[in-house]
Amino acid sequence: MGEMTTGGAEMGVTQQEGVRIATWLELAVAPEWRRRSCKVRVHALGEKDSGCYALSMDGRWLCTGDAQLTVFKGLDAALHFLKLVRIEDFEPGEDAGIAECSGQRFCLCIGRDNHLSSCPAGCSFQQLNS
């Protein structure tokens, strides 16, 4: 996704070369009617067996506040995140290749005690950021 700069939206929307992205903040503070009306998709990333996923919201990649693509190691991590932000309705999205999602990433996985945590240094997507 490359270098991204903050746009003018108060809900945490940023953009890169005209491509709008959504942030965790946008999902976390969205009113109930907004969460119910948005289209959330779960996308496989990279190789089919990589086990990494990303989320999109109304066609915008879900990123951190500093515009890093949020990558989930395992479908269970992505589903856990959706539960935390109270998103119940979602659908599978198209697979996204690494080239489509090139740039900085923030990787999350299910850690100890079944909580979301940042992936260990061995995560394949984190190694791409080195």
Task: Report the sheet with the most strands, covering strand number, pairing sense and barrel closure.
Answer: 10 strands, mixed
The assigned structural class equals: alpha/beta
Regions with little confidence, pLDDT below 50 for 5+ residues: 1-15, 126-130
Radius of gyration: 14 Å
Along the chain, the helix and strand elements come as EEEHHEEEEHEEEH
Can you give the mean pLDDT? 76
* Count of discrete alpha- or pi-helical segments spanning 4 or more residues: 4
What would you say this structure looks like, in words?
Strands 1, 2, 3, 4, 5, 6, 7, 8, 9 and 10 form a ten-stranded mixed β-sheet that branches. The chain is globular and about 35 Å long. With 130 residues, it is α/β, with parallel strands linked by helices. It contains four helices and ten strands, in the order E-E-E-H-H-E-E-E-E-H-E-E-E-H.
Summarize the entry for a quick read:
This protein is 22% helix and 32% strand. It has 130 residues and is an alpha/beta fold.
Primary descriptors:
10-stranded mixed β-sheet; disordered N terminus; 32% strand; disordered C terminus; globular; 22% helix; alpha/beta; 4 helices; 130 residues
List the helices and strands and how they pair.
Layout: E1 5-6, E2 14-16, E3 19-23, H1 24-29, H2 32-37, E4 40-45, E5 52-57, E6 60-63, E7 69-73, H3 75-84, E8 91-92, E9 105-110, E10 116-118, H4 124-129
